[in-house]
TrEMBL record:
Keywords: FAD, Flavoprotein, NADP, Oxidoreductase. InterPro entries: FAD/NAD-bd_sf, FAD/NAD-binding_dom, Fd--NADP_Rdtase_type_2, Ferredoxin-NADP_redctase_2. FAD binds at residues 38, 46, 50, 90, 125, 289, 330. This is Ferredoxin--NADP reductase. Homodimer. Residues 9-305 form the FAD/NAD(P)-binding domain. It comes from Gracilibacillus orientalis. The keyword Flavoprotein applies. It catalyses: 2 reduced [2Fe-2S]-[ferredoxin] + NADP(+) + H(+) = 2 oxidized [2Fe-2S]-[ferredoxin] + NADPH. GO terms for molecular function: ferredoxin-NADP+ reductase activity; flavin adenine dinucleotide binding; NADP binding. It is an enzyme of class 1 (oxidoreductase). Binds 1 FAD per subunit.
C-alpha cells in the first residue's frame, strides 16, 4: 500500500550528487522548504565512483580527492537542515490539478512538492556486475567494483577486468602500490586514451586482450581466477589477491521516458532545458549532468551553477515578487550566527 507524506515542500530535489547538494544549500539560503530524495544509501552522487582520485578543476578549491569533496559537499548541503530521504528511487512523477507535483518512489512512498529539481545525473549508479559463477559471494571480501581506498591493493596481486579508460587508469595507478597488476579485456583494443595505454608497459602491468573471467575460486575470498582466451579457447588459472571489475555502468532511462510527465528530452534521456535549467514543464527544472543546453558545462563547477540558477527560478515561480538571486553570502544575514561559530570557535 502507498504511504503518503502529506507535507508539501517548496522544492524537492531528486538526486543527492553535486548538483542536488548545492541546490539544497542554495534553496535553504533562499528560505525554501527543501527535501532531497536520493536512491543510494549515501549522498555524494557519482563522485563515489572515484573517491581516491584528485579533483583539480573546481574554481577556488585546491586539489581534493573525491571523498574529501563529498564530505564538504554534504556538510554544505545540510547547512539549512533539509529533509533527506535516502534509499528511495523516484519511479513516477505527475502534476496534480492544483499544480502540486506527486512523486512516487520504489518504496511505495508518495512525496508532494510545489517545484521539482531533477539532479539525477546519469541515473542511479549501478555498476555492471561480473558475469561469472559465484561472483556475488565475494562482493564483501576481495571482489571490487570501485576503488574506495588504494591501500586495499597494497602489495597485492590485482586482476583488473575491463577495457575502458577506468580499467586502464586504475591499472596504471595501482601498479606502483600493488605487488603485480594484471589487466584483462575481452575485446581486442583498449578503449582508453593512447598515452594511458602506452603507460601500461612502462608500469609493468601485464595485459591480455581477448581474455575474460570464467570463474572465481576461493573459500571466503578469491584466491584464483579462471580465464578464457576467446580467440584461442585457451584457459588459464591465475593466483590473485584481489579482483577489480570495471565493466561500466547500467543507465536506467525509465524515469525520464516513463515518468508520467511529457518532459522534452535530448537523446531520449537528458532534459532539454534552457540556460537557466527550466524544462518545458512549469515548476520542473534540471541541474547537473541531466541538463542539456548549448552552454552546458559538464563539470562539477557547472553543476553548481545550474543548481543556483534553478533554485532562483523555482523561488520566483513560487513568488514572482522574490529577488532574482539570493543576497551574496558575505552580506547575507542568514549567516550571521553561523559566522560567529566559524570566526570564534573553528
Ligand atoms: C571517473 C570520473 C571522474 C570525474 N572527474 C571529474 C573531475 O575531476 N572534475 C569534474 O568537474 N567532474 C568530474 N567528473 C564528473 C562529475 O562527477 C559529474 O559531472 C557530477 O558528479 C555530476 O553531478 P550531478 O549531481 O549532476 O549527478 P551525479 O553525481 O550523477 O548524482 C546524481 C544522483 O542522483 C541519484 N539518482 C539518480 N536517479 C535517481 C532517482 N530516480 N531517484 C533518486 N535518486 C536518483 C543518483 O543515485 C546520484 O546520487 C568525473 C566523473 C567520473 C565518472
Amino acid at each position: 500500500m502507498m504511504e503518503h507524506n502529506e507535507e508539501v515542500y517548496d522544492v524537492t530535489i531528486i538526486g543527492g550528487g553535486p548538483a542536488g547538494l548545492f541546490a539544497a544549500f542554495y534553496a535553504g539560503l533562499r528560505e525554501m522548504k527543501v527535501k532531497v530524495i536520493e536512491a543510494q544509501s549515501q549522498l555524494g552522487g557519482k563522485v563515489h565512483v572515484y573517491p581516491q582520485k584528485m579533483i583539480w578543476d573546481i574554481g577556488g578549491m585546491t586539489p581534493i580527492n573525491g571523498s574529501g569533496l563529498i564530505e564538504q559537499m554534504i556538510e554544505q548541503g545540510l547547512t539549512f537542515e533539509p529533509t533527506i530521504e535516502l534509499q528511495q528511487t523516484i519511479t513516477k512523477m505527475n502534476k496534480l490539478d492544483s499544480h502540486i507535483f506527486e512523486l512516487e518512489t520504489d518504496q511505495q512512498k508518495i512525496h508532494y512538492s510545489k517545484t521539482v529539481i531533477m539532479a539525477v545525473g546519469a541515473g542511479v549508479i549501478d555498476p555492471i556486475k561480473l558475469d561469472a559463477e559465484n561472483a556475488s559471494l565475494y562482493e564483501n571480501s576481495n571482489l571490487y567494483y570501485s576503488v574506495k581506498s588504494i591501500a586495499d591493493f597494497k602489495d597485492k596481486t590485482v586482476l583488473i577486468s575491463g577495457g575502458g579508460s577506468s580499467a586502464v587508469d586504475w591499472a596504471n595507478e595501482l601498479a606502483p602500490v600493488a605487488k603485480q597488476v594484471i589487466l584483462i579485456y575481452r575485446g581486442d583494443d583498449f578503449k582508453a586514451h593512447e598515452s594511458d595505454v602506452s603507460k601500461l608497459a612502462r608500469n609493468n602491468v601485464e595485459y591480455r586482450t581477448h581474455t575474460e573471467i570464467t570463474a572465481l575460486l576461493g573459500d571466503d575470498s578469491i584466491n584464483e581466477v579462471k580465464t578464457l582466451n576467446n580467440q584461442t579457447n585457451k584457459t588459464d588459472t591465475l593466483s590473485v589477491d584481489a579482483v577489480l571489475v570495471n565493466h561500466g555502468y547500467n543507465r536506467n532511462h525509465q524515469l525520464m521516458t516513463e515518468s508520467g510527465l511529457q518532459i522534452e528530452l535530448k537523446d531520449n534521456y537528458f532534459i532539454q532545458g534552457n540556460v537557466l535549467g527550466e524544462s518545458n514543464i512549469p515548476g520542473l527544472y534540471g541541474a547537473g549532468d541531466i541538463l542539456s543546453h548549448e552552454g552546458k558545462l559538464h563539470l562539477i563547477a557547472g553543476a553548481f551553477q545550474d543548481a543556483a540558477n534553478v533554485v532562483n527560478c523555482a523561488k520566483r515561480y513560487l513568488d514572482p515578487e522574490a529577488q532574482k538571486v539570493a543576497l551574496v553570502s558575505s552580506h547575507n544575514a542568514r549567516f550571521k550566527e553561523k559566522n560567529k561559530e566559524y570566526l570564534y570557535t573553528k
